[in-house]
Design brief:
Strand content: 5-15%
Helix content: 40-55%
Mean pLDDT: 91
CATH superfamily: P-loop containing nucleotide triphosphate hydrolases
Number of helices: 15
Structural class: alpha/beta
Number of domains: 1
Strand order of the largest sheet: 6-1-7-8
Length: about 325
């Protein structure tokens, strides 16, 4: 009888809407002495969709994979020696794409003195079945934050939706897609964590996350701000949308004080149902006819763009 293979370690995958605190959670988990989580990858879905084109004569085309990674700007941001990745791939001779991906992530982890690895790419909330199809050991931590605070954070950022209405639709789509996929994946593969709990009760939240990820809890995760020099080369070099990592996290952007009544009403017209389903309390603000008009116009434009995108993909 052949000895059974050791089970693959869990592949922690942090997902959620942008501006929901996924970088905060990544920094906390990355402070764990065993776990290393690189910057956003974004390339896993693309690799999974082109798996067949990376196979030559029934073998994985490692040089083609290395070239694909080397030209990818998201992978370049990992600041990982591509020659070392290629050397490790050569040593292990992976038979398939999943094995090769594990080598890439483990090379990153070992370069940072860690034994385990994971991923934080918020947009994978839209692609969890694809990621799971590539890496069956993946477990998803879906971080959810009050969408009104998410909208305020987007308005301060240099990327993403630039109106409250667009932010409402963006947030609703991702939360809804993530929760729907999570119901299909089941509790063994999917865990919801609320940003507000992560900030107000970090030890409890991280304890639950670690148990879900088969990772022993370590109090060093609570000291993540002391380790930012290892997480990102210098705090002063933090991108403007991540500079708050160096500060104590706050529970909320206080949308009650920072949003106008019109902004609150328009967000809740578009995203109020999802707020309720996520157990966030609605404001009670009554929308004006102008609020209804603006929200309806944004929704129509959003649906039109989605329809055109689907047509383009089908052509």
């Amino acid at each position: 009888m052949e000895p059974s293979k050791d089970p693959l370690p869990v592949f922690p995958t942090i997902v959620g809407s942008g501006r929901s605190g996924t970088t905060l959670l990544r920094s906390m988990l990355n402070a764990h002495p065993e776990l290393s989580i690189p910057r956003e990858s974004h390339f896993l879905v693309d690799l999974a969709s082109t798996d067949g084109r990376l196979v030559a004569n029934d073998d994985l085309d490692v040089p083609a994979l290395v070239d694909r990674l080397g030209s990818n700007p998201w992978f370049q941001a990992w600041d990982l020696d591509l020659a070392e990745v290629e050397a490790q791939l050569g040593k292990t001779a992976p038979a398939d794409l999943a094995s090769a991906v594990r080598v890439v992530y483990s090379t990153y982890a070992h370069a940072h003195g860690k034994t385990r690895y994971g991923d934080k790419t918020p947009s994978y909330v839209m692609h969890m079945p694809t990621i799971l199809g590539l890496l069956p050991e993946a477990r998803f931590v879906h971080l959810i934050r009050d969408g009104r605070d998410v909208a305020l954070s987007f308005l301060d950022a240099s990327f993403g939706p630039d109106t409250v209405e667009e932010a409402a639709l963006h947030w609703k789509q991702r939360v809804r897609r993530g929760r729907s996929a999570g119901r299909q994946l089941g509790p063994g593969r999917y865990l919801e964590v609320f940003y507000e709990d992560l900030v107000t009760r970090p030890e409890d939240a991280l304890g639950a996350i670690c148990a879900f990820l088969d990772l022993p809890y370590h109090p060093q995760m609570l000291r993540y701000r002391e380790l930012l020099d290892d997480f990102i080369p210098t705090v002063d070099a933090l991108p403007s949308h991540h500079e708050n990592l160096a500060k104590a996290p706050r529970v909320t952007r206080s949308w009650q004080q920072e949003m106008s009544g019109h902004q609150v009403a328009r967000f809740e017209l578009l995203g109020g149902g999802e707020l309720r389903r996520a157990n966030y309390q609605l404001s009670g603000v009554r929308p004006t006819p102008a609020d209804v008009y603006h929200a309806a116009g944004t929704y129509t434009a959003w649906q039109t763009r989605r329809f055109k995108k689907k047509l383009g993909a089908a052509s």
